[in-house]
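User: quick one, sequence for these tokens?
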């Protein structure tokens, strides 16, 4: 028997402009927005020190 644990997920509402900007930040076309947002947040955390 295999047990797969899924992370909790949610939906957020963003403007089309923000979605397009996030899309341009993708490393590859199929990269999830979650990964893009994590990279941005990690970068902000490093800047704050």
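Assistant:
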């Amino acid at each position: 028997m295999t047990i797969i644990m899924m992370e909790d997920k949610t939906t957020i509402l963003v403007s089309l402009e923000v979605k397009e900007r996030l899309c341009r930040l993708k490393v590859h076309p199929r990269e999830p927005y979650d990964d893009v947002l994590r990279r941005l947040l990690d970068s902000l955390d490093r800047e704050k020190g």
